Amino acid sequence: MKDISIYFRPVTPEFKNEQHSLGKKIFVHTEDSFPEFKKKGIAIFYVPENRQSDFQNRPNDAFRNSLYDLFPGSNWKHTIYDLGTIHPGKSVEDTYHAVTAVCQELIKANIVPFIIGGTQDLTLPLYRAYEKLEQLINLTTVDNRLDLGSTEEEVRIDGWLSHILLHKPCFLFNYSNLGAQSHYISPATIDLFNDLYFDVLRLGSLNTNIKLSEPIMRNTDILSFDLNSIRCADHGDQTYASPNGFFAQESCQLMRYAGISDKITSIGIFNYVSENPSAALSELIAQMIWYFIDGYENRKGDFPVGSRRGYKKYRVTLEELNEEIVFSKSDKSSRWWMEVPYPGVKGHKFERHQMVPCSYEEYQEAMKGEIPDLWWKTYQKLC
Question: Where are the beta strands (DSSP E) in the chain?
């Protein structure tokens, strides 16, 4: 593993924590030492890069006080690292380069990079880490907007996604958004995302049933969480003005679903740009990190590859498709997957399928003779 300590400044000052608190469990980058990566786990670091927005660079890591004062779960066994802070470089591209280099090395070492960020455009260098690894990925954002922007304009806090969608070579297979609010998104943008067969779950649907997010999290490699997606009343910080959004407990539930996902290998909480964050905001970020770690500690490792022992199979024939959809349910976690065939190989002895995480609701749709929307979108992307 390459030396990534050169990109970081240590955590200062040292925080005083109770004997059994999380702060005593975390391997922290101090003035005297940088953590050694001997075991897989989660590596937290802070990147106060805000230059692609109207906010000034105002480093503030108050979330660490709140995080270190929490207590670990009873069954936590993996290693947690706090690598410190990547301070903005001479240019924004310098910062991007540092984030990409760090994340690439951590992912190769089976360590999940957890960025507490400045603005959400830092998702772009996180994506670039997978490009260098030549790995096809699925990206999910938790956001009240779709930060599309234009490749003809520079990367911005609210316009970075197009730089991923149109980048060559493209390693993005699917994009999903959780928590979109229609009044912030133009109809043309919605039409574009529908044409690309991307998944957009609106806030109202998730407020009604937050469990709809779990299969999407299970099929995600990179999660980018925008703090603007949380309603301002739940953290009391005036930097964020949206009256509607996820409740605090829903944000923590989303993070736990992300942690449980065997597929997620990197995550960021972004737009942490308040100069003097409220105590409630710092505490909420700490709890969101805690719930991700707790989910990570409870990963089931039951993605159905190879032998399907330990799974119940359900075959549903759909007349409209003139074929059957095969669903698999894990005995270990009771989670569902469905098979989507690769076009052009039907009837071949070694017919290939894409295993897609789904919910019981998709199975119920198929039982009613309806083609699940998730099946159709995935099939179109495979064409």
Answer: 27-28, 41-47, 79-85, 111-117, 137-142, 172-180, 199-202, 222-226, 266-270, 311-318, 323-330, 336-341, 353-358
